[in-house]
C-alpha cells in the first residue's frame, strides 16, 4: 500500500513538473485566431501564401512596413530609402540587426533575396526582373535598386511584401528545397522566434534581442499561441469566455453579443464595428451573351442594393462600397476619382435600372415576367459563390431577388468551392462574387491590376475573371503604375480615366467592403487599438502582420 | 390477411408509431399551407426572435421563419425517405435474391460488388456524383443515398434466401422446371413479404438520417431547404452559443421522432407478422 | 476448409484492389483541379500564379498520364508511402492521419464498447421484465432514431451553454498541449465527455433493442419451450437464450469496430473534434486527392479486416456455411 502511495506521489510530482513546462503563463501569452485554417506545416517565406501566419512579419521581416491608418510606409529593416533619380531607389539599412542565429543582417541578404528569383524563375516575385535592371551594394548597409522601367506603385507594394531571407542559410539550399521545403525552425530577423507547433497551433516565443525593441518598443506578449480554430462558432465561444484574446474571424452575432458581453472589443463601438479591409466585387462574364452588353451590366449595377445585404446578412458589420470600389483608406482616397464617380457613378435605383433596360431593348416580349434580350431571345443569369460560404450565399440570394424585381431572370447557385474556382478561372460562370485580391494596400493600383488583369488567357488565376478586354484601360493602369506615387494630381488624372471606363463598362461591380474582422477580449490583454486609439491596424492574417499586427503587439497593455 | 389487419390495429406499438409518422406526414403536406409565410428562405421579420405568436418557432439570424423552414424540411425528409429508401430496398432485393438463389460464382461476384460498396464510404461516391452535379436537389440526393445504402439489405436478403432455397416447396418448384426468376418471384418473395416490408421501413428511416448527415457536412442539396441544412445553418451561424435553441433543437427533434416512430412501427409490424412475438 | 479459406482470401484481396482503385479514381474523375485551389490561396501578382501552377502540377506528378499515375500510386503504396497532402502541403498524408487517428479512436472505441456492454445488459434485462420493457423499448427506439449530430447539439446546448459545465469544442483546451499529467488528462476528459455521451447514447439504443429482440426470440423458440416442458429451471433457460442471442451481437460489434476509422464525421464537426472524420471532410472540400485516398485506404482496411474476422468466426462456429461452398445442392 505504501508503495502504491509512493508511486502515486512521484507521478503527481512529475506531472506538476511537466505541467509547469507545458502550460504557458496566461498573463504572458496572447491567444490569437482567424488566420490559421490548416495544421501548421509550412514556414517557407518563398511561398508565403502557404506559410503559417506570422512567418512573414513575426519571423521574417520586410524592408518596410505599411500603416494604412496613417498611409505611411514604415522603415523596417530599411532605415531610410529614397528615389535618387527617376529609376534608382537607394535604401540605407538599419545597423545592428541580426538573424536569430546571431549572424549580422546586411545588404548582401537583400540582394540575395531579390536575385534568387532571377536564378529561379519559379519564385513568385521573379517577374520583378522584367522592370528591375540590377541591384548594387556599395557597402553592407546600402542597397541601390536600378530599374529599367520603374513601376512606382508596384515597387511600394513590393517593399513591404517581400520578406528578406538570410543568404548564409538559403544559398545552401537546393532549388527544390527553396521552392517547396517546409523550412521548419525558420530563422529570420523578426520580433518572434519559431518555438514549436502542433496540429492545432503555432507557438511563437518573443525574441528578446530583437533590434526593434530600441526602435519601436518591445512587443508585450512573451508568447503568441496562434490557434487553428476549426470554425467561427468555436471562435465565438472562445472570445466569450476569454480563451481567445484576438480573433480575425467573421463572427455572426457580434452586434447582438456586444450588448451582453461588455468585454468584447471591436474597432468601432457602434456600426459598422469593423474597419473596411477589402472589396467584394460582383464579376460579370463579358464573354457571354447578353452579359457582353455594357448597358445590361450597368443596369444590373443600378438594380442591386448592397445596403440591405450589409444590414441583414452582415448585421451591419460591413459598409456598402462607393461606385468605384475605393476602400475608405487614406492611401486610396487621395486618388479618389470624384468626377467620374459623380458623372458616371451608380447607386441603388430600380427605376433607373428599368429605364436603362427598356432603352437598351431588354423588354418582356413574351410576357413571362422576365425581360428578353434585344434580339428577342430569353436569357437567365446565374450568380455563384462557393457552397458553405454562408454570408456570401445569403448575399447572392438577395441579389438574385433584386435582379428579378427589375425583370432580369437571375438565380443564386452554390457549387462546391473547387467547382466555383474552376468556373471562375476558366470563364464558365455568368456572375460571381470574389474578393481574393482587393484588400487594403498602399495603392489602388493593386486593385485595378487585379480587377482588370490584362494578362488574358485560357485560365485566369488572378482577377479579371469576366475577361474584360480593353487595351486603353490596360494601358492606363500600366501608366498609373509608372507614375510616381507622390504625383497625386498626375495619378488622379489617370485614375479618373480608369474609373470612367470602369463605370461605363461595368465588367465588375463593387458591392460592399468586407470588414477587417476583429474581435478582442479584454479579459487578459487591454489597450487594443480602436477608433479612439487608432495606433495599429488590427490584422493577424498571413502576410499582413507588417501592416499593423506587429505594432498592435507593441501597443498592448496588461 | 384480415387476421393480420386485426392484429395490426390491435398492436399498440404499430398504432403509436404510425400516428406519429402520419402526424408528420400531414405536417409536411399541409404545414406549408398553414404557415404564414410562403418562402422558407425569405426574410420575413427581424432576426434573433424567440418563438412568438407571429413566428411560431422564432426566427433565424436573418429573420427567416423557423416554422416555415421546418415544415418544408419535413416534406423533403419524407421525399428522401421514400425515394432513397425505396431505391435502396429495390436494389438490395434484386441483388440479394439472385445472389442467394443462384449461389456459386454469381453469388461470389454479387457479394463482392456488395462488399466493395460496403467498403467504399458513401462519402466517396457522393463527392464524385456531387462534383458532376454541382447543383444538387433533394431528388438527386435521394437517388445517391438509394444507390449507396442497399448493400446491407442485399446481404440480409441473401441470407434469408439461402435458408429458403433449400426448403421443400422451392425444391419442388425447381423440379417442375420453372424459371429461376419465377421461383424467386412466386415462391421465395411471398414468403419474405413481411421481411421486405420491414426492410423498407428501416431503409426509409436510414435514408432520412443519411440525408441529415450529408446536408450537415455540406454535401447535401445546394438549393431548397431541408432539416439537415437547417441544422447546418444553425451551427454555422452560432445558434447554440447565442442561445437560439428554437433554431438549433427542433429540426433534430422532428427527425428523432419520425425515425424513432418508424423503428417503433417496425417492431409492431414484426409482432403482427410473427405471432410468437405478439403481446400476450 | 482450406479451399474455402483460399477463396475467401482471394475475394478479399480482389475487393481491396477494386475498392482502392475506385477510391483512387474517384477524386481524379472530379471536375475541378486541386492545384488551382492551392494557387488560389496565393495572393500576389498575376504573373506569378502561372509559374506556381506549373511547378506544383509537376511536383505532384499530375502532369503524367493517368496510367502512370496509377502505377506510381501502387508502387508508393507498397512502400508505405501515401503521398503528400495538397491541402496541408507539404505534409505527408500518413502524418496527417497519424495525428488525427488517436482522437477518433479515443472517442469511438470507448463509446462503441461501452454502449455494447450496457446495451446488451439493458436489452437482456428488458426482455424478461415486461414493465421495464414497456418503458425502455419506446425510449430506445427514439434514441436510435436521433441523428448523432442532433444529440450532440442538444448536449452542447444544455451542458455547454445553459449549465456551462462542459466545454463544447475541441479535444482539449487550447491553454494546454497534449502531455501526460493529471491536468491534461482531466482536461481531455472534460472535452471528451459530451461527444462520447452523444455517441454512446445513440448507439446504446440499437444494441439494447437488438439484444432484447434476440433474447425474446430465443425464449420463445422451440428449444426453450421444450426445455420448459421438461421442467428445466427458468434461470438456466435464460442463460442459454442469452448465450445464443449474444452471437449476432458479437458480429455486430466486429462490424461496427470496422467502421471506427471513418470516425463519426458529424459528431466531430459539431464538437470541432480533430479526428479523421474532420480531416476527411476538409480533404474533400479541398479536393486533396492524396489525403482523400489515404483516408479511404485506412477505412477500407478497417472494414475489410472486421468483415474477414466475422467470416472466419462464422466459419468456425457454423459448419453449414462451410458446406454450402462445397458445391452440393
Averaged pLDDT of chain A? 91
> Biggest sheet of chain A, open or closed, and with what strands and sense?
7 strands, mixed
C-alpha-based Rg of chain B, rounded: 22 Å
Total number of beta strands of chain A: 19
Q: What helical percentage do the residues of chain A reach?
A: 25-40%
Q: Biggest interface and which pair forms it?
A: A-C, 67 and 56 residues
| Gyration radius from CA atoms of chain A, angstroms | 26 Å
The secondary structure category of chain B is mainly alpha
Oligomer: heterotrimer
Low-confidence stretches of chain A: 12-20
The overall strand count of chain B is 0
Tell me what the structure shows.
- The complex is a heterotrimer of chains A (558), B (280) and C (329).
- In chain A, α9 packs antiparallel against α13.
- Chain A has 558 residues and is an alpha+beta fold.
- Helices cover 73% and strands 0% of the residues of chain B.
- Chain B is elongated.
- Chain B starts with a helix and ends in a 7-residue tail after the last helix.
- Chain C is built from 14 helices and no strands.
- In chain C, α12 crosses α13.
- Chain C is flat, with a radius of gyration of 25 Å.
- Chains in contact: A-B, A-C, B-C.
- At the A-C interface, α1, α7 and α15 of A face α2, α3, α5, α8 and α12 of C.
Features of the shown structure:
heterotrimer, B: 280 residues, mainly alpha, 13 helices, 73% helix, C: 329 residues, 77% helix, 0% strand, flat, disordered C terminus
How would you concisely characterize the structure shown here?
The complex is a heterotrimer of chains A (558), B (280) and C (329). Chain A has helices spanning 2-22, 107-119, 152-158, 167-170, 175-180, 212-215, 232-241, 254-260, 294-303, 306-312, 330-333, 338-344, 350-359, 390-405, 417-426, 445-451, 471-481, 488-505, 549-555, and strands spanning 29-33, 64-67, 72-75, 78-85, 88-93, 132-139, 142-147, 192-198, 201-206, 223-227, 246-247, 264-265, 275-284, 319-320, 381-384, 410-413, 431-434, 508-516, 519-521.
